[in-house]
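Dear Dr. K.,

Following up on our conversation at the group meeting, I've run the structure prediction for Nod factor export ATP-binding protein I, putative from Perkinsus marinus. I'm pasting the input sequence below exactly as I used it, so you can double-check it against your construct before we proceed with anything downstream. Let me know if the numbering doesn't match what you have in your notebook.
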Amino acid sequence: MVIRSADLNKPLQKSNAPRPWHVIHAGGDSNFGPFWSPYCAEADDYCDTLRTVVTPLDQSSSLLAMQSHLRETRNDYEASSYIAFSHLDNATDLQREVGDPLARTVLWHNLTATASSAIALNAYVNAWFAAHGVDIKVTVVNHPMPQTLFEQNIAVVVSGILSTIAVIWAFAFIPAGICSYIVMEKEKDVKAQLAISGCSTTAYWIAHFIFDTAFNLFTVAVAIAVLYAFDMEAFTDSDKIAPTIMLLLLFAPSASTYAYLISFLYKTQFSAQTVTIVLNIAVGTIVVIVVSVLQTIPEEFCEDCLVAGNVLMWIFRFIPPFALGFGFYRMAIYVSFLGVDPWGSEIFGTCTNKTLGTRNQCYGGVADDLVYLAFAGMAYLLLCIWLDHLGTSGKWLSYRMKLEKRCPIPEDQLAAEDEDVVVEKERVAKLEKQKQILAVDNVRKCYLPRGSLVADPSRAVHAVKGVSFAADSGQVFGLLGINGAGKTTTFKVMCGLYAPTEGEVWVAGTTVGADTSKCRRNLGYCPQFDALLDQMTTKEHLELYGRLKGLKGHLLDSAVGSTLKQLSLEAYRDKRAGSLSGGNKRKLSVGMAIIGRPRIVFLDEPSTGMDPVSRRFLWGVIQQLAISRKSVVVLTTHSMEEAEALCSRIAIQVGGQFRCLGSPQRLKSRFGRGYEVSLKYDDVTEVAAEEIRNSIGIASANSESSSAQLCMSVEDARAALEKIPDRLNRASCLPGAVLRAADEQGSHAILVADLVGWIDLDEKLAKLEAFLRASGISSTVLLERHGTNVRYAIVPEGHDGDANGRSMMTIDITNHIGKDI
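The predicted structure tokens came back this morning:
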């Protein structure tokens, strides 16, 4: 009988109870493996009943009959065949194999089903009880055999290794997040802004360390709770929980300092986060596996593998993710499997001699990893502080400056200096700089290729070339120039962010190189790009930089409130900086520079990205700052309009040099080449258009033939224009003129309306030029003509200015042109 998945509860007819069972194995190539055979006496009614219930498959009663039947019919039914019963009429072979003359019935089961043998036995016995009316039901429970101690240890080891990988993957993100934030502050110049505002290097790194470590401890607590929740015995047993907690606790500070150290290698936040995550996962898992494999390969297969593994282990332990991963690995393998002391140390000689594979050696616990993590937590922090100090002081800086001085400025990169620049240079050289608020004396800055240890003049970049100027209280000094002129580099040298290759910068009587911290207490700095932290509010930014300037208590509150009011930011005091508009971000950057009333304020393109109204408002704030607070304001700009509106003196910087220097009017009188006039004319009126049509012989727009006069050929247009003397001579200097454009493009026709509009504007411009010449203009040049918009360059006669450098010229164009403008 074959029992399928839908027929397991089908009862059999009444018979005698079955006898005990023997286990034998079937031959052949069927899927059915070990089967059970009950004792069945040849004269028992039960065997006869079973035979009458199920039609015999084969009268030969051979075992092969059932095997063949199961193979041939396995695809004939929707339900799968899992167990089958065979009752043999001639059971001589079976009885001989079992060694029992009473064996008659065979139980078959499909090995593709889990625990099929137990299920077959259960089905057969329950079927017999049901057939005989016995109110008994047998339930089979498949329980695995108890694990041996070795199997239990293997399970703990496997669980520990998988847990180690999971922990490392989770904790790999902690240093990456910290590193990306540090790089973000460097990338957005927040770190430079803090330094210029008075934050010391030591305070910067220690503040980060305290916060990051405290936050990491919260993550450690969550990780320990998860290990307990999932009952990770390799780490949470009574003798192992303390080493596990110590590993995680010491990883918290070492992960922070490790992230600080590698942040010096990155320039962008994205690369810092991505590379650090991959590096941590690789070192914490792949390298740990490689080291552990090298340490367990038998010596007969590789003599130097153990040495190589140990060398890699001691080197990579300096990287906290490896120390954490290797410590967890030792807890899972050495402590749980080999029984090594979890506090054992190879450094202090407290390791345990054990045999792993064919190697017998002294194995330590996690003590060595704890030592390395503790070392990294302190040493890397001190190293970061030292590296930061190295960039602004010390022998390394002196050595770099000596290298830079060996790279003189090539002659072909030096332009002739204007007389005013030379006079300013001589004046600054003779000043008593100890009494000067701001003095820049012949400053030069040369960049060598990154990492260069020798001077290479051919690869040096000269950003600033001998700049000199001085500014007094209440003065606004402007640096005007295009991108790449050296303005921002000059700023950063004056702020102490870059050391000058040559020359000196004096701030409030002290050179920046001699006492940078003292000089910065007198500075306020607004960078070219907003150095804001997106998650901090406007008020929090001002409070932070106010505290850096030494303000406390009610003085701080008063300064923050007055700055918000002065910059019209009161409505945004509690808004996060990341949600502010571009103009309000620039206002906040200026506020961070001026809070605390610094004696010198550096503004690097303060009005960039502002609308005209906000720009004018900010100009008023800057003027008030210079006049009422008697501060020195130094700003950079691209706009001559802004420089003229704000600055008492302007230096135009080109290629790192001051090309000219003086008051705005002085520069215009000496180097100006006239004026520009921009005009916009009204469209041609219907009356004027009708007159032009009549003058050139084109049918009126109101005539019956007007439909034929919407366009005309180029030849007809030329013939029409010949009726207007001296007009065609102007076409060559009018870009975009209708007739010339049609001629160049090979067009065969032009619109009459366009031609009429061009003639009308041409006549208006002729009248304007005649008026300008009569008003004393020696030269007029049409710079641009687009539609009804025109732009002229005009030069008055004798345009040299008066003795005071002022140009004396007033022309009332509006009254002359009237409504045509």
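Two things stood out to me. The two ends are 110 Å apart (CA to CA). The first helix runs from residue 45 to 53.

Best regards,
J.T.
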